[in-house]
Amino acid sequence: MDQRRSGCTIRRRRAALRTLLVLAMLGAAPGAASANDAPPVRSYLDCTAPVTPRHCISVGDNPRHHVFVHESVPRSLRWAVRRVMRDVYEPTALTMIWDDRRTSRTDVIVRAGNYGQNGAAGWVVCPPHAPQGRNEHGHRWCRHQGLYFNLNPRYSAYLNDAASRRHLACHELGHTLGLRHWGNPPASDPPSAATCMTVNTPNGTTYLHRWDRQNINAYYGPM
After folding, report:
1. How many CB atoms lie within 10 A of CB 162?
2. How far apart are CA 203 and CA 207, in angstroms?
3. Res. 152: pLDDT tops 50
């Protein structure tokens, strides 16, 4: 009886050692989750609030994110959107799909124009007539979200070079998925590393922070 107990104890110890080895290989400590201070994925703001420009943040209804770029978008911005879809969001749990035309599955409709000095180089809104609802988290999902780039000269710093255009595209596409701003209320403190979800940074990074990617994977992965 004592020998059987001893054998069970040894097996349990070996199993525990194997678990510790796997955790070490993954770079994780047992019993401790890695810190993630990025604002969580969720819908935010009332899309019908009387503000200029009218804007809000919604989530996608599934991991397949269809994007249609209207002919009003200049070629340089069109390329920025396409590159960000491929290089930034496609490596996550999402499948980014470039729509050649608007369909019932289109999640985002990108347009550009001179919208005046309204305080924004870009913004996202879920129009009242767009297909929308609530998911199991109680968050608003929206298809046919409007993503707007403001070509007014006031915001030329966001559009003058390829990196700034990719930064802006990364930022606004993040909003169409439920990512929110870093570093300004009601979000968290500024990040310890760069992310395109910071605000008022026309020369900011063209990529997401790893915490943003973790949140996207956690939110859209199980769908």
Report:
1. 12
2. 12
3. yes
Q: Tell me the pLDDT tens digit for each residue of 46-105.
A: 999 999 999 999 999 999 999 999 999 999 999 999 999 999 999 999 999 999 999 999
* CA 96 to chain centroid: 12
SS3 for the chain, per residue? CHHHHHHHHHHHHHHHHHHHHHHHHHCCECCECCCCCCCCCCCECCCCCCCCCCCCECECCCCEEEEEECCCCCHHHHHHHHHHHHHHHCCCCCEEEEECCCCCCCCEEEEEECCCCCCCCEEEECCCCCCEEECCCCCEEECCEEEEEECCHHHHHHCCCHHHHHHHHHHHHHHCCCCCCCCCCCCCCCCCCCCCCCCCCCCCCCCCCHHHHHHHHHHHCCC
**Rg of the Cα atoms in the chain:** 21
Pairing of strands 95-99, 64-69: parallel
Give the residue among 142, 112, 129, 118 at the shortest CA–CA distance from 45: 142
> pTM for the complete prediction?
0.82
- Average pLDDT on 142-163 reads 97
